[in-house]
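Task: sequence design from structure.
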């Protein structure tokens, strides 16, 4: 993954969804070569230190990133008590789709090819959204994801998809292997030796960032996102 270290424009953005508003942090390097939307899951948010670390590495490689909360603050309180919304894949996916449509209208991102980075249940939401916007989404990366929760949408995903799983994340490896078999797009499964579910081991998250960066750079490049859905 190339290290560009360009000037980065950091801004808070708000995406209106009817009566709701989602807040996110958009980082735009100069001459960005693509933009990556992070879909969090399992109680995480745009302040996830793991996703923020990966986003910073992508920024240094010249890719813009948007870390956005898919739940409102009120919904996050409910989810902390019930853990129900984080598994509502349809809800999360529709919000990823809504943010995707916002990207196409936002002046600073409308001409950038779009990729998704999904973690845990957010990976399932990203894959469902990619199936809904096949002409817009250029690549998908899943970190320790639950792609199985995308269900029948897996077979409709057209975007090249990279599944990254820790070598010691037993059970999730098998889940990702089964999902890989259902995908009909360009696809790859990479197992990071010695890593557990959260990739907390030394060097594990760096490997995730390297793999994701190379995948996005290859598939997003300088292509432009089509305006049609």
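Answer:
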């Amino acid at each position: 993954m190339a290290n560009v270290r360009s000037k980065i424009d950091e801004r808070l953005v708000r995406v209106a969804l009817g009566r709701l508003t989602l807040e996110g942090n958009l980082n735009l390097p100069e001459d960005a070569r693509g933009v990556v939307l992070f879909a969090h899951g399992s109680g995480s948010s745009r302040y996830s230190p793991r996703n923020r670390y990966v986003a910073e590495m992508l920024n240094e490689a010249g890719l813009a990133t948007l870390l956005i909360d898919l739940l409102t603050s009120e919904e996050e309180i409910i989810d902390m008590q019930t853990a129900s919304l984080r598994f509502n894949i349809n809800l999360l996916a529709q919000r990823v789709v809504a943010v995707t449509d916002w990207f196409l209208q936002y002046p600073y991102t409308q001409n950038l090819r779009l990729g998704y980075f999904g973690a845990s249940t957010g990976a399932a939401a990203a894959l469902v959204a990619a199936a809904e916007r096949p002409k817009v989404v250029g690549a998908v990366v899943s970190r320790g994801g639950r792609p199985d929760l995308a269900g029948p949408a897996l077979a409709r995903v057209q975007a090249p998809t990279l599944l990254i799983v820790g070598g010691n994340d037993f059970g999730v490896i098998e889940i990702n292997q089964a999902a890989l078999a259902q995908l009909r797009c360009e696809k790859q499964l990479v197992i990071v030796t010695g890593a557990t579910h959260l990739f907390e081991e030394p060097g594990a998250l760096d490997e995730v960032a390297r793999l994701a960066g190379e995948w996005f750079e290859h598939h997003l490049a300088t292509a432009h996102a089509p305006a049609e859905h």
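Residues 89-105 form the longest helix (17 residues).
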